[in-house]
């Protein structure tokens, strides 16, 4: 199976980062978890209407990436735009560095080869996102990650079920697939490739 055929099944950063962006704009004025659930539900409904032939996580990622890019394009302030992009990266990073490994660990699979490759490929983005948070301490990186964690886990489980189905294997084999194909997968799911508008805004001087 070609990696390019299943890579979109592996990427849920689009869903995560759009929910993060929406959550951080309202987090201090209401129930964070309710807001994230609401955004996820609306994204799922729109994906079903606009991409009925795609698996749920694929359609949701398409909708979320498009909305995230539109939100960035409509923000004229470069500082705010960069903070939005940092929030988006946190969702993308947490989904693949925290939630996905936790899912596979429950199945008895250590996906360190995948997470090591993923982390190494995003050192510059991670450093910039943390620098952005350091200059805007009103909402911390940890608060953002904590707020979206329950929803990320639900989506990651669905995503991995889809990956297992496409790969023709079990849930455990889906985790092993990440390890066995870590380098090509990470190359194709790089933040710069999957969310170019957000990456550009994040790395602006």
Walkthrough of the structure:
The chain has about 200 residues and is mainly alpha-helical. The chain is about 80% helix and about 0% strand. It is built from twelve helices and no strands. The chain has helices at about 5-10, 15-25, 30-50, 55-75, 80-105, 110-120, 125-135, 140-165, 170-180, 180-190, 190-195, 195-200. α2 (about 15-25) crosses α4 and α2 crosses α5 (about 80-105). It is globular and about 45 Å long. The model is unreliable at about 1-10 and about 25-30 (pLDDT under 50).
In short:
The protein is 81% helix and 0% strand. The protein is mostly helical.
Count of DSSP strands: 0
Helical coverage, percent range:
over 70%
* Fraction in beta strands: under 5%
- Given helix and strand content, the structural type is mainly alpha
- Alpha-carbon Rg, integer: 16 Å
What ranges have pLDDT less than 50 throughout 5 or more consecutive residues?
1-12, 26-30
Q: Spell out the helices and strands N to C.
A: HHHHHHHHHHHH
Overall mean pLDDT stands at 79
For the termini, the CA-CA separation is: 40 Å
Q: Which geometry do the CA atoms define?
A: globular
The helix count comes to 12
Largest sheet: none
């Amino acid at each position: 199976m070609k990696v390019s055929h299943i890579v979109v099944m592996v990427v849920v950063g689009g869903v995560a980062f759009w929910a993060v962006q929406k959550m951080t704009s309202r987090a201090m004025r209401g129930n964070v978890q309710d807001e994230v659930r609401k955004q996820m539900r609306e994204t799922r409904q729109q994906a079903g209407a606009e991409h009925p032939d795609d698996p749920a996580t694929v359609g949701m990622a398409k909708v979320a990436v498009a909305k995230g890019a539109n939100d960035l394009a409509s923000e004229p302030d470069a500082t705010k735009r960069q903070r939005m992009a940092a929030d988006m990266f946190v969702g993308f990073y947490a989904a693949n560095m925290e939630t996905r490994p936790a899912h596979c660990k429950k199945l008895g699979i250590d996906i360190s080869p995948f997470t090591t490759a993923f982390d190494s490929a995003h050192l510059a983005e991670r450093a910039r996102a943390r620098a952005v948070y350091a200059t805007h301490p009103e909402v911390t990186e940890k608060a953002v990650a904590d707020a979206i964690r329950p929803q990320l886990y639900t989506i990651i489980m669905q995503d991995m079920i889809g990956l297992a189905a496409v790969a023709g294997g079990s849930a455990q084999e889906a985790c092993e697939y990440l390890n066995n194909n870590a380098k090509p997968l990470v190359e194709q799911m790089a933040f710069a490739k999957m969310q170019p508008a957000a990456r550009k805004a994040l790395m602006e001087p």
